[in-house]
Design goal:
single chain, 60 residues, mainly beta
Length: 60
């Protein structure tokens, strides 16, 4: 199964080298390659307010 980006436990981050790191906050995923298990028991739909937003740091 592909990555479930619509799950509230999915997290994606771009590191300084430009590589995108994807992970499951509950470690319920297959690690290499990253994929969500079929019919994951921990799947929870992402709230509409959190979908599609990019969080950036305000530190200067």
């Amino acid at each position: 199964m592909a990555v479930r980006q619509d799950c509230r436990h999915y997290s994606s981050r771009t590191v300084s080298s430009g590589e995108v790191v994807q992970r499951c906050r509950l470690d319920a995923n297959e690690t290499a390659p990253f994929a969500c298990p079929e019919h994951c028991l921990f799947f929870e739909p992402r709230p509409i307010s959190g979908a599609g937003w990019t969080v950036t740091s305000t530190d200067d």
